[in-house]
Amino acid sequence: MTFNEFGLDERILEAISYMGFDKATPIQEQAIPHILKGSDLIACAQTGTGKTAAFMLPVLHKLADSKIKGVKALVVVPTRELAVQIEQQIQGFSYFVPVSSAAIYGGGTGNEWEQEKSALSHADIIIATPGKLISHINVKNTNFTKLQFLILDEADRMMDMGFYEDIQKIITRLPKERQTLMFSATMPPKIRELVKLNMVNPSEISLAISKPSEKVLQVAYLVNDDHKASLIHDLIKDKPNYEKIIIFSSTKKSIRDIIRGISGKGYTVEGISSDLEQQAREEVLNKFKANLVRVIVATDVLARGIDIKDVDLVINYNVPGDAEDYVHRIGRTARADASGLAMTLVNEEEMYKLSEIQKVIEADIPKINIPEHIGISPEWNPGRKKSNSYHRSSGKFKSASSGNKQGKSKKKFGHKPKQGNSDNKPSNKPPKS
Question: What is the pTM of this model?
Fold first, then answer.
């Protein structure tokens, strides 16, 4: 389905045509008609499916010729990176229509506070993180009497971050007569509670919840921690087709170690985490987007919501803590119609976690042994790590005592692995790039 078939304002169609958009993604195809009709909407869709355009294009269509002054649409998001990204996309979508927007998020200066205060009085669309918006609400900087649209994006992430009470407080300051749109990758109980309290007969859309895009080629390398940096360099050193690479680390401390391990090899590497000031984070992202930096090493701060085009390769330096984090991380590649490659580096202690992630996403990720010149791969045996329990209801792993670890078994590259509890045999062949 093309965007011309939705009956959107011609000026919006012209803008998205300049941006290179023609055909709607499935979430856009299903969501836009509901929003244009005026229905409240709950939409579940995997990352990288075009959710921002799905809710923003019909809202812009309805606001394009509005004469009402004041904030008419509020988008609440979990992170400042997502707030900045959505605001940038709105600027593109609304290039030919007289609709203004502003992003409000934490980590700014006193001057930015004054700019945000002004925007809350004059902008048509506000994109805000809950905490910073609450700060403005507390000092009476907000006036939402003209508000027509409330959009909660990455709602499950906001619940994970403990923003439920803040969101409820924000909603009490909004008109009851409004259209409410909620976009989320999952639908945990807290989301259902939020829906029940704040939405009116919402339409529901659900697309491939908690599963990676089929366009992502997933592989797992069996590798001990002291060989991971060497393996990464070996995988990317002679691969010019991997122009944009994101390496995800589970901790901020590991970022420094990873950068030290792969720096000075002939390609540019930079790190990004919540330790960096917002301006510094944006500078790193902009250099990455402009191909001035080839490799970014990041925590999960970059896993959700950030739309960076043409990411060729995602590497999980360690196995994420749950299936949702895994899906969001590898969803940074294979955006829209593109394909991509996601590699997960799995040590002996992480095999159980990966096996449980496979159950949730209903996929058997191919296992690959590291090249012989790097070292020896641990044997694939996810049953060995008995001390971790996986809570399917929460999607989280919980560590118990480690007293029942079995002895470690090694295997040499090229030898046939023992089956044990494995769900597929490791291969010695790297994925085709």
Answer: 0.60
Tell me how many degrees the CA angle 207-211-216 measures, rounded to the nearest 5.
Answer: 110
Residues 225 and 343 in one domain: yes
Answer yes or no: do 258 and 317 share one domain: yes
CA dist 53 and 50 (Å) reads 6
Query: What domain count does the chain have?
Result: 2
How far apart, in whole angstroms, are the C-alpha atoms of residue 104 and residue 316?
Answer: 31
Asked whether the CA dihedral 17, 19, 21, 27 is positive or negative, the reply is: negative
Output DSSP code: residue 410: B
Whether residues 110 and 203 fall in one domain: yes
Q: Which has the closest alpha carbon to 151: 212, 83, 91, 88?
A: 83
Angle between helices 189-198 and 164-172 (to 10 degrees): 10
Q: What is the pLDDT of residues 360-418, one digit of tens each?
A: 788 899 999 999 999 999 999 987 544 433 333 333 434 333 333 333 333 333 333 33
The residue range of the domain holding 63 is 3-207
Q: Which tokens hold the place of 300?
A: 């999960």
Q: Is 159 in the same domain as 221?
A: no
